[in-house]
From TrEMBL:
This is Transcriptional regulator. Gene3D superfamilies: 2.40.128.630, YVTN repeat-like/Quinoprotein amine dehydrogenase. PANTHER family: CELL SURFACE PROTEIN (PTHR34512), OUTER MEMBRANE PROTEIN ASSEMBLY FACTOR BAMB (PTHR34512:SF30). SUPFAM superfamilies: Quinoprotein alcohol dehydrogenase-like. Residues 30-121, 148-256 form the Pyrrolo-quinoline quinone repeat domain. SMART domains: PQQ. It comes from the Archaea.
């Protein structure tokens, strides 16, 4: 049943286990087509709601959890996490057009733990084709491995090429010409040792490679093309970079959440997301961690922060996001940021959907009782999925499982 409040209409999605103080893995997804608001749920269901009436238009079972949804010309691409690591295309009526089980390439899960399930982490669309990245993690005693493949699919689901390495892809982006595909790897602990590979989109062959050159296996968090520039977040040194899109040469870099001493501890935060458009770049950081160990009561001064910079890397404006961001939705220079809990501060006021104009920093905020974990945006609307949460030291359930769409 749909309801309306504070400029948003809401549809209840049923039951889901509440999140806890620490942010959980991706459990929900949402996309907008011309006709529908489409929601992917943890139990495998994909449901399309009519954008006007919010009545159910169609529903299907993806088998795996549809952790990512991408709208392409009225159809829906569902990126799965589960036994098969299944990716599938559904038409405007919800009928499956094709599907592909990535586990056939990256291997079947060696345990039933969520983190070790085959996972299609990202998809981007070109003209009459689709790019996707899938990964699988396994651990045997002290031995840890990643298996991954990047694909180019035709419109019928046929595979034009594969690019396979023993590292963990985290993000894809396609340049405006459609000639280059950037692949960011956040963990490199095997033979593959580059945090970023830019592939020729026709052949799947590497055009150039880049790496922050830091110790350890942490490398790149996100990638975003803007004209002749590729913006990159580095998990290695917690900085943001602008690279020449043709050859990978560095144009500039900025400190984001680099190691900083606070009350005798060295703390940092990962720059997890980047969006570049119209000569501007927005970088977003995540949770604070100590250099020594995993627990701290401290907070990095630049955790949960969005900073926008210009073409020279000079800061234009910044904003406090308040809590962890699973991912951003973008439409040109517009950013929609679902901000969930800050697990150390545990302030429910941080649960909000924040919309930013990249050039000006103008923002709008809509608060939720629960945590917004997924968002979608187009020229007309914004949609967000809210999940309930129980803080570990309170026991109170805040919010519900629902999808919200603005009423503009």
């Amino acid at each position: 049943m749909a309801a309306e409040s504070e400029g948003f209409r809401t549809v209840d999605l049923g039951e889901i286990d509440p999140a806890r103080s620490r942010h959980m893995w991706t459990r929900s997804s949402v996309a907008l087509t011309d006709s529908h608001v489409v929601v992917g749920q943890w139990d495998g269901a994909i449901t399309a709601f009519d954008r006007e009436s919010l009545t159910t238009a169609w529903e299907t079972d993806h088998d795996d959890s549809p952790a990512g949804l991408l709208a392409v010309d009225g159809s829906i691409i569902a990126a799965g996490r589960g036994e098969a690591g299944r990716i599938a295309a559904y038409d405007a009526d919800g009928d499956e057009q094709w599907s592909y089980a990535t586990a056939g390439d990256i291997g079947e899960p060696t345990s039933d733990r969520v983190f070790e399930q085959p996972y299609v982490v990202d998809c981007v669309a070109g003209d009459d084709h689709l790019f996707a990245a899938a990964r699988r993690y396994e651990r045997d005693g002290e031995t840890r491995r990643w298996h991954s493949t990047v694909y180019r699919f035709g419109s019928d689901g046929s595979v034009a090429w594969r690019f396979a390495v023993d590292a963990s892809p985290i993000a894809l982006d396609l340049d405006a010409s459609g000639d280059r595909l950037a692949v960011g790897y956040n963990r490199c602990m095997g033979d593959h040792d580059d945090g970023l590979v830019v592939l020729d989109s026709d052949t799947g062959e590497p055009a150039w490679r880049w790496d922050p050159g830091t110790a350890g296996d942490r490398r790149v968090g996100d990638v975003s093309f803007d004209g002749d520039r590729l913006a990159v977040t580095s998990h290695g040194d917690k900085r943001g970079y602008a690279l020449d899109a043709d050859d990978g040469s560095r144009q500039w870099r900025v400190d984001l959440a680099v190691e900083t001493e606070i009350d005798g501890e060295r703390l940092y935060a990962y720059p997890n997301h980047v969006h570049a458009a119209a000569g501007h770049v927005a970088f977003l950081t995540g949770n604070t961690y100590p250099v020594e160990g995993r627990e701290t009561e401290g907070q990095h001064p630049h955790e949960h922060r969005l900073v926008a910079v210009n073409t020279e890397g000079s800061e234009l404006w910044d904003a406090d996001l308040g809590g962890f961001v699973h991912g951003v939705a973008t439409a040109g220079s517009r950013l929609v940021v679902p901000c969930a809990q800050n697990f150390r501060v545990r302030d429910p006021a941080a649960h909000a959907l924040r919309t930013f104009d990249l050039p000006t920093g103008e923002t709008a905020t809509h608060s939720f009782a629960g945590i917004p974990t997924a968002a979608a945006v187009d020229a007309d609307s914004v949609a967000a999925v809210e999940e309930p949460i129980v803080y570990h030291d309170e026991g109170e359930t805040r919010g519900s499982y629902a999808v919200h769409i603005d009423t503009r």
